[in-house]
Design brief:
CATH architecture of the largest domain: Up-down Bundle
Mean pLDDT: 92
CATH topology of the largest domain: Fumarase C, Chain A, domain 2
Radius of gyration: 28 Å
Low-confidence stretches: none
Shape: elongated
Structural class: mainly alpha
CATH superfamily of the largest domain: Fumarase/aspartase (Central domain)
Number of domains: 3
Strand content: under 5%
CATH class of the largest domain: Mainly Alpha
Largest sheet: 2 strands, antiparallel
Distance between the termini: 35 Å
Helix content: 55-70%
């Protein structure tokens, strides 16, 4: 099909490549999202008399056919199409004639792309939530299985105070749960429809924006049509910033695991099926997944920065610069989801070595405990601290498991609050699952069967 903007000249081939680049490749991820938006828009056009009932029926049939082709990976998007939006309209025009030529009525490619991206980000958020919930569940499971396994706590990477495997694991679980709550908050921001804003200023047709928003399952319309345009890139940056927070958590845990799985420590062992080998040293079992977790965190951070760098000085209204925010959005999302899933797998298969952990609980680990004992016996903290500090060679060790039980404040090794963490996890999981179920019904009502591939299982 001719380009959506085609007039009475042919675009220079070099300029075509420059303006399209890899955009059409990344658009494969947006086909199903665009079909949802196009189905709602078509129904909206039918509601105001732009489409006849027969034309609407044909278009809905065509959109369902494209969905089936995409599910089979048989819907082609070429560089000459520029993007999936032209490819979809081209298919509808070839198959249904004038009805296909009418589907773009009242839409700019701008609000069409915005709508598809908004739907894509909404589903991507739910998929990230699903992955983060899996990771948190693995961490809580690790903690539950090792509540009484002591572990040296460290500051400045030096031995500090008594801790436990459960306390260590739950520190990451609670961090992931906080970030999952943030994803749910961001979901409310993303969950608004830009459809009907056209090229930033609306159109003179009586489009019912509330109606089309409800058909797509959005909780509301993004009211100001110029803000709807100007939010492109900014919403993507919101998304990638939240993905980066998750990745930062994973990166810190990956660094811990690389340290604690060293033979010199031997606290944990990684499952061998999640380790790679050396091309020259036959004995090697390398934690490449953990190393790449650190670098993928940087990759996700760079995606967020790329988007913000692109949009930071743009004037109001649509600018083609927005196109270059699509690639980092998709790339950052894919990396974040994969990162969470592989860490959930690794955590679930992590082998804990209690003997090595107990052996690592050297006497100096209890120096602060000795200070607190003197305080409880009536001494002041500063003199007690000085006395123990000047006589570290006299600090004796103790039963590491019993030492955990002395910590009774909530959130410490002896009072972990596991039940609260488990309830928190299930609350987030329930809210995310409820939203997935709701959207599944919305999408099924528009294009039956599409919900099987657009939403996480």
């Amino acid at each position: 099909m001719a380009k959506l903007w085609q007039k009475n000249y042919t675009l220079d081939s070099m300029m075509e490549h420059f303006t399209v680049r890899n955009d059409y490749i990344y658009d494969r991820d947006l086909v199903l999202s665009d079909l949802i938006g196009s189905a709602a828009h078509a129904k909206g056009l039918g509601r105001i008399g732009i489409l006849s009932s027969r034309e609407l029926e044909d278009l809905m049939e065509g959109l369902a056919r494209i969905a089936e082709l995409r599910k089979q990976d048989r819907f082609e998007i070429t560089q000459s199409d520029e993007d999936c939006h032209t490819a979809i309209e081209g298919f509808l025009t070839r198959e249904y004639g004038d009805a296909g030529k009418k589907i773009h009525t009242g839409r700019s490619r701008n609000d069409q792309v915005q709508t598809a991206l908004r739907i894509f980000m909404r589903e991507a958020l739910l998929k990230l939530l699903s992955a983060s919930i899996s990771f948190a569940r693995s961490l809580i499971g690790l903690a539950e299985a090792n509540q009484d396994v002591p572990m040296p706590g460290r500051t400045h990477m030096q031995v500090a105070m008594p801790s436990s495997v459960a306390l260590w694991a739950l520190s990451f679980a609670e961090e992931i749960l906080e970030e999952s709550d943030m994803l749910l908050s961001l979901y409310h921001v993303i969950d608004q429809s830009p459809l009907g804003s056209a090229a930033s200023y609306g159109v003179t047709l009586p489009l019912d924006r509330e109606y089309t928003a409800s058909l797509m399952g959005f909780s509301r319309v993004q009211n100001n049509v110029l803000w709807a345009n100007n939010s492109r890139g900014k919403f993507e940056a919101f998304f990638l910033d939240h993905a980066e927070y998750l990745a930062l958590t994973v990166s810190k845990m990956a660094q811990d695991l690389m340290l604690f799985t060293l033979p010199e420590f031997g606290y944990f062992s990684l499952p061998r099926e999640l380790c790679t080998g050396s091309s020259i040293m036959p004995q090697k079992k390398n934690p490449d997944g953990l190393e790449l977790a650190r670098s993928r965190c940087s990759l996700i951070s760079s995606c967020s920065m790329r988007v913000k760098s692109i949009i930071k000085a743009l004037p109001s209204g649509y600018n083609r610069d927005f196109q270059d925010t699509k690639e980092p959005l998709v790339e950052g999302y894919r990396a974040a989801e994969e990162l969470l899933l592989i860490m959930a797998e690794m955590t679930g298969k992590l082998e804990v070595h209690p003997d090595a952990l107990i052996k690592a609980c050297v006497p100096e680990l209890y120096a602060t405990d000795r200070v607190m004992e003197k305080v409880l016996q009536g001494g002041n903290f500063r003199d007690s601290y000085r006395n123990v500090g000047l006589n570290l060679d006299k600090v004796e060790g103790e039963d590491p498991v019993a030492a955990l039980g002395k910590r009774t404040s909530i959130g410490t090794a002896g009072n972990l609050g596991l039940g609260g963490d488990r309830a928190w996890l299930e609350d987030i999981s329930g809210r995310a699952g409820k939203e997935m179920q709701r959207l599944s019904g919305v999408y099924s009502a528009l294009i039956p069967g599409i919900e099987e591939v657009i939403l996480p299982s």
